[in-house]
Every structure is written in structure tokens, then in C-alpha cells.
Known about the structure:
Elements: H1 4-26, H2 29-47, H3 55-80, H4 114-133, H5 136-147, H6 152-159, H7 163-183
Helix pairs in contact: 1-2, 1-3, 1-5, 2-3, 3-6, 4-7, 5-6, 5-7, 6-7
Amino acid sequence: xxxxxxxxxxxxxxxxxxxxxxxxxxxxxxxxxxxxxxxxxxxxxxxxxxxxxxxxxxxxxxxxxxxxxxxxxxxxxxxxxxxxxxxxxxxxxxxxxxxxxxxxxxxxxxxxxxxxxxxxxxxxxxxxxxxxxxxxxxxxxxxxxxxxxxxxxxxxxxxxxxxxxxxxxxxxxxxxxxxxxxxxxxxx
Length: 188
């Protein structure tokens, strides 16, 4: 059974990736934060007594289900209050720090010029934009396999589908990303 420290360490280790994954899905920082917090609470309340090695799979499944619940609730709200959405601003700013992923470790002598740093930031933004443009199931499979580093079976369990579906979604996502990024001049 997972101790409080193991549970806390696990949640701390996945919080940023889970938040980023949620942003890719819902495209709303506040909603993504709510989804991640709800998922963490559900894991702690209902599955905190499970062995530590089961926590990642449980958490990813809970996060997926919580995201689906958010979409269902949001769809209902939009259907009921669609006229009010005409008054909302379409401009959204993200508090997520993109440059956090570009930090160079202290143990290296490497420094980047402002121009190189800007170019790298632009490439990362292009990649993130193309990931967001993927269909939902392809994006979910891609993020679970390559962002969360789950194997095919674990991804299938988290997504509630067959391993063949995971392979198909991942293959289509990689192909779509490859084409879109090559069109933008980004080569692997």
C-alpha cells in the first residue's frame, strides 16, 4: 500500500505534465487546473490505499475520465447558454511557462543567444499548436504514449480502448504532426 509520502511524491511528479495534457485537451487554463485537481483528489480519496506501482495507471485513467466529464458538462452548458457565449472574449492568455521546458541545466557550459532562444520558443509553440490541432483521441493517445511514456497496453487501459486503436491513433497523430511540422519548415 502506498504511504502518504509515496502518494504525495507521485502527485508532485505528475502535476505539471497532467496540467499540460489537460490544457492540450480543453484549451482553458482554469478548466485544466480544475480537472487536474479533481483527478488528484479522486486518486487520493478513492485509491490512496493502492500499491504505489498502480498509481500512474489509476491516475491517467481518472484524468481521462475527468476530462471527458468536463466535455460532457461543457457541451450541456453550451447547448443551454449558447447565446451568452457571443459576449465572451476570444483572447485567452496562458499562465503556463513555455520557457520552463527550455531551461539548460547548470552542469553544462552551453549558453544560448537571444535569437536562438527565440527560435527555439517559436518551434516549441508551433509543435504545441499542431498537437492541439490533432483530433481528441489521437492527441490523447499521442500524449499518453510519448509524453507520459506509457506502453501500448497501459495507454489502451487509460483510454478505455483496444491496443490496436492506440496504435492506429498514435500512427495517425505522428503522421499528421510530421506533415504539419514539415510544412512549417521544422525537420525531425
